[in-house]
Amino acid sequence: MEIEVKIRALMMDPNSGTPIIILKDVNSETMLPIWVGAYEANAIALEIEKIAPPRPMTHDLLRNLIVELGLTVDRVVVTSLRDNTFYAVIEMSGEDGESMRLDSRPSDAIALALRVDCPIFVDSEVIQASKNSIASDEDGSSEHEVGEEEWPDVIGDASDLPM
């Protein structure tokens, strides 16, 4: 089963300094953190803040190419979590109704989803796998499960985001 999510926050992991996208289930308080690269986090932040770079960035170029080819991005889906790596697909359709799926990193899929204003989904098994893979801290006690911890509000509520 797939769960629709919105971007809840874009923040820095205080331990590693790595950017994290927090995805929140639109129908519950469940949240999924996905660690991403700095470039992808910047691309997502620029689109959230509606800051237009002077020249198209890679995700803008991808959006422009998709539009010029007569395709529509229907949705993006975070499909799996294997060996602490998230996987996603971009689901598109052509003018003839033919559908296609393009393998993607979740960060790139999310950056594109913001640019084309399409929904973001996560397979429910990914959320469960993420809960099961949260490591214990150094003293052996378990960290909070995804969705239980209060995440800092860095970019505002999901209702503030352009989706």
Description:
This protein is of the alpha+beta class and 163 residues long. It has a single domain (2-134), classed as Bifunctional nuclease domain, CATH 3.10.690. The protein has helices spanning 38-48, 58-68, 106-116, 124-133, and strands at 2-12, 19-25, 31-35, 71-82, 85-94, 99-104, 120-123. The protein has a 7-stranded mixed beta sheet. The longest helix is centred in the first third of the chain and has 11 residues, at 38-48. The radius of gyration is 16 Å and the shape is globular.
Report how far the terminal alpha carbons are from each other: 21 Å
Tally of contiguous helical segments: 4
Please state the structural category. alpha+beta
Number of domains: 1
CATH architecture label name? Roll
Top CATH class: Alpha Beta
Low-confidence stretches: 135-153, 155-163
Total strand segments: 7
Q: Give me the Rg, rounded.
A: 16 Å
Spatial order of the strands in the main sheet? 3-2-1-7-4-5-6
Helical content class: 25-40%
CATH superfamily: Bifunctional nuclease domain
Which H/E pattern describes the elements? EEEHHEEEHEH
Mean pLDDT score: 85
> What is the approximate shape?
globular
Strand content is: 25-35%
The CATH topology is: Bifunctional nuclease domain
Biggest pleated-sheet summary? 7 strands, mixed
